[in-house]
Design goal:
By secondary structure, the chain is an alpha+beta fold. The chain contains 11 helices and 5 strands, in the order αααααααααβαββαββ. Among the domains are: 128 residues, no CATH class; 127 residues, 2-Layer Sandwich (Heat Shock Protein 90), CATH 3.30.565.
Length: 387
């Protein structure tokens, strides 16, 4: 472990201690230092040092226990008490009043501008008026200004650290909110996919099941194919639903299986053709790269349009046309049915879903009655991936 790491760990452990303990230990240490000249040396007169010196040294240091609770008061007590030291003749010389310096540091670090400037001016004026020599006064002023400057630096550092902590907390909250929004978007996407799967598969199965009793008597071979199509559609729906429900489980980490994309459209057209609907799939132009989300959207949009045709149009023919242009892919799904249709966005949830999927990819979708004959038309424009 590096020295910087050890220092950081020690600092965190020190900050975790109760303030009163830390300040009490500091006050005790400074009291020992202030008493040390009286303890370690003897008077030149041969007599013990005057008891007054001991009392002043203790009185100027012990109030530091409450330095962060009342910094100005503690500094004032320390200043006034230390100024009384020379009232007794037989006392040891005190090189530095550490209690006063710590008091100035605390005022500079924790007090507002008014009190700390006032204490600095009062202490400077007092030292000039009460100290006997200019050399001693200058030395005391330098020490006081240094303690004050260190205190202000500590306050600035603490404010900067607090700002960084607040910024980190804000970024963490934003990250959590973004994760929640991403989860909501993912669940909304899954809900749309489940709607498409269920609506499409169930519609095909219902149509095929309704046709089953008719063909079972007239064409047993076709009836068998119809029931096989129902079973195949049901298995495909169950597989896709099981995959999506696995994603929804909070405590299960499961890989996301590939979703059907634009390359699966011919198979989708063939599946819809099993209902008795004649579905034609045509493609023109040179196929170009398509973003993965757009490729999935192309499949889901076509799936929803075919579902609407099977459920509502009464059509016997549908056409799926893909037109590859320079920068866009056009998908046109039309039918020759007689069912009423309404243009986006005032149609049903399926049409709104088509519009939302196209818009999410940077494209657009329109839907409404055909202009060239009976039936309904869905036209989708999707952007191609940048090459």
């Amino acid at each position: 472990m590096s020295e910087l790491t050890l220092v950081g760990v020690a600092r965190r452990r020190l900050h975790a201690l109760p303030r009163l303990w830390v300040d009490g230990a500091l006050a005790a240490a400074i009291t020992v230092v202030q008493l040390w000249p009286l303890i370690s040396s003897a008077s030149s007169t041969g007599r013990p040092w005057h008891w007054w010196g001991y009392m002043v040294a203790i009185g100027a240091s012990l109030p530091l226990v409450w330095r962060r609770r009342a910094p100005v008061t503690v500094l004032a007590i320390s200043l006034c008490t230390s100024a009384l030291y020379d009232f007794a003749d037989n006392v040891a010389r005190q090189p530095i009043w550490y209690g006063v310096l710590v008091g100035f540091y605390t005022v500079a670090a924790y007090s507002s501008a008014g009190p700390r400037i006032t204490m600095l001016v009062v202490a400077t004026a007092g030292s000039l008026l009460t100290v006997g020599s200019w050399e001693t006064a200058l030395r005391g002023m330098v020490q006081v200004v240094a303690a004050y400057a260190i205190g202000r630096a500590a306050a600035t550092s603490r404010a900067h650290a607090a700002a960084l902590e607040e910024r980190a907390a804000r970024l963490e909250r934003e990250r959590q909110m973004e994760a929640e929004r991403a989860a909501e978007r993912e669940r909304a996407r899954i809900a749309r996919d489940m709607h498409d799967i269920l609506s499409h598969s169930v519609s095909l199965m219902v149509v095929q099941a309704e046709a089953g009793p008719v063909v079972v008597r007239s064409d047993p071979d076709k009836a068998e194919a119809t029931f096989d199509a129902i079973a195949s559609t049901g298995r495909d729906a169950m597989m896709q639903l099981r995959r999506m429900l696995g994603v929804l489980k909070d405590n299960e980490v499961s890989p996301r299986a590939p979703q059907p994309t634009i390359g699966d459209l011919p198979a989708l057209a063939g599946q819809a053709g099993g209902t008795g609907l004649d579905v034609a799939f045509t493609e023109s132009g040179e196929p170009r790269p398509l973003a993965s989300d757009c490729a999935v959207a192309a499949y889901r949009i076509t799936q929803e349009a075919l579902t609407n045709i099977v459920k509502h149009s009464g059509a016997d023919r549908a056409d799926i046309r893909l037109t590859w242009e320079d920068h866009t892919l056009m998908i046109d799904i039309t039918d020759n049915g007689t069912g009423a249709g309404r243009a986006l966005p005032s149609g049903g949830n399926g049409l709104i879903g088509i519009r939302e999927r196209a818009a999410a990819c940077g494209g657009a979708a329109t839907a409404g009655p055909r202009q060239d004959g009976p039936g309904f038309a869905v036209s989708v424009r999707l952007p191609l991936a940048a090459s």
